[in-house]
Write a structure and sequence with these properties.
The chain is of the alpha+beta class. It folds into three domains: 121 residues, Helix Hairpins, CATH 1.10.287; 61 residues, SH3 type barrels (Roll), CATH 2.30.30.60; 83 residues, Alpha-Beta Plaits (2-Layer Sandwich), CATH 3.30.70.100. The chain has five helices and twelve strands. The strands form three sheets. A five-stranded antiparallel β-sheet has the order 8-7-6-5-9. It has a four-stranded antiparallel β-sheet with strand order 1-2-3-4. A hairpin with a 3-residue loop joins strand 11 and strand 12. Helix 1 runs antiparallel to helix 2 and helix 4 crosses helix 5. It is elongated, with a radius of gyration of 34 Å. The termini are far apart.
């Protein structure tokens, strides 16, 4: 006896284990194969997610552990290494997982189609290959690291991420620029080596210039001892310019690149305070009286 159940136009044959939709019949073996393939694809997706999560965790722990070694990478290079390794891991997982899913869905025919499609995409994705090759050379030559302040063509900012294909920099307005590595032709790195600080101080012709330089020298000595990011003590070069209402005294020194701007502004303030204490006029035509 044939036993059929019809639901919304779908007939389920409980005797022959079949499903009929309109004139289309799906046999028992096809149902099992489809269900098995679906579970395999879901399993691959879950494995991809787990592999990415575990891999990222391992990379993080390895990079953090190397910081404790006697010969280790600095903070910026460590962050760069971590992001690059995570990028390579992500691309590798996607590549293997997608081809495994194609093989499950289409078998050897799917692999053939994927190969043909890969060749076709290859001709149209030369820019992608160029991005990855150029990204490799950027890393190999250590042109810049995460945290560096750089100029790439007409874009300037702090490097937030370096991957095999792209570089991300954030400018001082807060805008994030994503730049394909293949388009990078010229890079200016402002974070390599020590940076010069330069302070010009204008004082009146009526002021005692020797006394002013003595006060500035004392400020520079104290400034150097109190700031560990000062690489080279600020020194007085002398009178740099003669202006209509006064003279300009120039002071230069060197600091670590990351501290240049903040220390330069701090030195200006301390010089101004030091001149005030010495009763020196820091601005032409203005006399400061000490109480």
């Amino acid at each position: 006896m044939e036993k059929l159940i019809a639901i919304a136009g779908i007939k389920v044959d409980l005797i022959n284990d079949g499903i009929t939709i309109g004139n289309f019949n799906i046999g028992k073996e096809s149902v099992y194969n489809a269900a098995y393939a679906t579970f395999k694809i879901l399993g691959i997706i879950i494995l991809m997610l787990l592999a990415a999560k575990i891999g990222n965790s391992v990379i993080y722990k390895v990079v953090e552990r190397q910081k404790k070694f006697k010969f280790s990478l600095d903070e910026r290079k460590s962050e760069t290494l971590k992001l690059v390794l995570q990028s390579i891991l992500r691309y590798s997982i996607y590549f293997v997982g997608i081809f495994a899913i194609i093989e499950i869905m289409f078998g050897t025919v799917g692999l053939t189609l994927a190969s043909i499609g890969g060749v076709a995409v290859g001709f149209g994705s030369q820019s992608l290959v160029k991005d990855m090759i150029n990204g490799f050379f950027i890393l190999f030559e250590d042109q810049y690291s995460v945290g560096d302040y750089i100029d790439i063509d007409d874009k300037s900012g702090i490097v937030e991420s370096i991957e095999l294909r792209i570089t991300k920099i954030r400018d001082f307005n807060g805008d994030l620029h994503t730049i394909p590595n293949g388009t990078i032709t010229k890079v200016t790195n402002h974070s390599r080596g020590d940076r010069r600080i330069l302070v010009d101080v204008d004082i009146s012709y009526d002021a005692d210039q020797d006394k002013a330089m003595e006060a500035i020298g004392a400020v520079c000595s104290k400034f150097t001892s109190e700031n560990e990011d000062v690489v080279e003590k600020p020194e007085i070069l002398g009178i740099y310019a003669l202006k209509d209402a006064g003279v300009t005294i120039r002071i230069t020194g060197k600091t670590k690149s990351s501290a240049q701007l903040s220390l330069e502004m701090k030195l200006r303030k301390e010089i101004k305070d030091g001149l005030s204490e010495a009763n020196i006029m820091p601005f032409p035509g203005v006399k400061i009286l000490k109480e």
